[in-house]
Amino acid sequence: MKETAQEVFQKDAKDYLPVFNRYKIVLDHGEGAYLWDNTGKKYLDFLGGIAVNVLGYNYKPLVDAISQQAAKLIHVSNLYYTQPQADAAAKLVELSGLGKAFFGNSGAEANEGAIKIARKYAHQISPDKSQIITAWDSFHGRTIATLTATGQPKYHEGFGPLPDGFDYVHYNDIEELEKMMSDKTAAVMLETIQGEGGVYTPENDYLKKVRALCDTYDALLILDEIQAGIGRSGKFFAYEKYGIKPDIVTLAKGLAGGVPIGAFIVTDKVAKAFKPGDHGTTFGGNPLACAAANVVLDTVPKPEFLAHVEEVGSYFKEQLQELQKKHPELITDVRGTGLILGAELNSSEHGRDIVNDCMAEGAIINCTAGNVLRFIPPLIVTKQQVDTIILTLDDVLAKYDK
Ligand SMILES: *Cc1c(COP(=O)(O)O)cnc(C)c1O
Questions:
Q1: Cα 241 to chain center, whole Å?
Q2: What Å distances lie between residue 397 and 15, 319, 352, CA to CA?
Q3: Is 390 near ligand 1, meaning CB less than 6 Å away?
Q4: pLDDT of residue 402
Q5: What pLDDT digit, counting tens, does each position of 258-298 carry?
Q6: What pLDDT score does 367 carry?
Q7: Which atom of ligand 1 is nearest to the CA of 106?
Q8: Cα-to-centroid distance, 284 and ligand 1 (Å)
Q9: 315 CB-contact burial (10 Å; exposed 0-12 / middle 13-18 / buried 19+)
């Protein structure tokens, strides 16, 4: 029997570990860029399950591939081969121009694997080459190693002792990175575009300079594209926008359109650091997840799909800039590229209220880093849907204008 929202909230409060600060709706089903809650209220979704539902909800080819695969085989372990996994790996290697792919179940696991292989690779050069440099305000996951990689002290507090060998620099500050690097640096790990930290894109050829420093010190460049990859920037991999190639790239979120998956892809040179037994997973890359990933990998990289992201993204950014002109006190910056966009608020005072007010008006958006409205919608959103979000925001923001 279908329960009321109140009943679901009560059950959750009693039985679910209270780690999420949830919004008070119970979601029931979706179609395209729309979601419906269990009271029948409709929402235009510009969060997309946090950059996951790249093809929107109830996308028929994805639902069909999952259903057909589930009827054949959901899981067999990695002691055997399956075609969906081999196909998905081949597509990722081809798209990235790197050498070998590995599948896990989440972003954190993808980054954990990337850190492991980078350390193993560097240890072959020298036993004390182990330093991993990451950025302040980054987000890399919630396992002990990936929360250590995450340059946000609030995620570290109370979880020590944390693993050694992680250092932090300010994103976009090439001089600080240069000072910190040495022959002891195993890897520099960065989000190509910082998502959770507030939507920051690389400036002034930053990534090209990072690439050059990594080459100087024989350190690996790990790019975390868990949020910014899978077409979100308008290129399949965001690094393609910045004219560089990493040694390792990690993916997750949108990779299987909503089915849990993570992946890291490495060059052939790096791949040689791992021998059988050095890494593994029970579920990772199972045929169900890979069948879903194959639909995404057959759809998103198409030039017309990426051109749509680019076009709607630029239009959206212009509209956000117009919105900033109308509310200059409230919106202090608009940034991002493709369909990963942010509008910075003058303070964190009203971030959550604005998100709640939009929700009441049938629009799902997100506020990250306390004061950055973040837009990471399904990549299939249209200009008309952008107009709707902008109208809603305009209405809501008016309430907070002084
Ligand atoms: C979401 C995210 C992660 C963590 O992914 P999970 O699937 O939640 O473990 C890591 N890095 C970035 C950039 C992310 O956005």
A1: 16
A2: 36, 14, 12
A3: no
A4: 76
A5: 999 999 999 999 999 999 999 999 999 999 999 999 999 99
A6: 98
A7: 7
A8: 16
A9: middle
HEC profile of 330-348: CEEEEEEECCEEEEEECCC
pLDDT tens per residue across span 220-268: 999 999 999 999 999 999 999 999 999 999 999 999 999 999 999 999 9
Residues in the chain: 402
From the CB of 197, is ligand 1 less than 6 Å away? no
Query: In sequence order, which residues have a C-beta less than 8 Å from that of residue 81 and are 6 or more positions away?
Result: none
| Domains (range + CATH), the chain | 5-54+303-400 (3.90.1150.10), 62-299 (3.40.640.10)
Whole-number pLDDT of residue 1: 80
Which protein residue has the closest C-alpha to ligand 1 atom 10? 140
> What was the pLDDT predicted at 172?
98
Predicted local confidence at residue 78, as pLDDT = 98
Mode of pairing for the β-strands spanning 220-224 and 185-191? parallel
User: How many CB atoms within 10 Å of residue 12?
Assistant: 14
CA–CA separation, 270 and 303 (whole Å): 30
pLDDT over 90 at 214, yes or no: yes
pLDDT at res. 19: 96
- Judge if the beta carbon of residue 106 lies within 6 A of ligand 1: yes
Q: What DSSP string describes 38-90?
A: TTS-EEEESSHHHHT-TT-BT-HHHHHHHHHHHHH-S---TTS--HHHHHHHH
Beginning with the edge strand found earlier in the chain, give each strand of the sheet holding 331-337 in spatial order: 331-337, 340-345, 372-375, 366-368
* Stretch 74-100: mean pLDDT: 98
Peptide bond into 161 cis (omega under 30): yes
Give the distance (Å) from ligand 1 centre to CA of residue 108. 6
Q: Which residue in this structure is represented by tokens 């009321």?
A: 4
Tokens found for residue 383? 């200009």
What pTM does this model have? 0.98
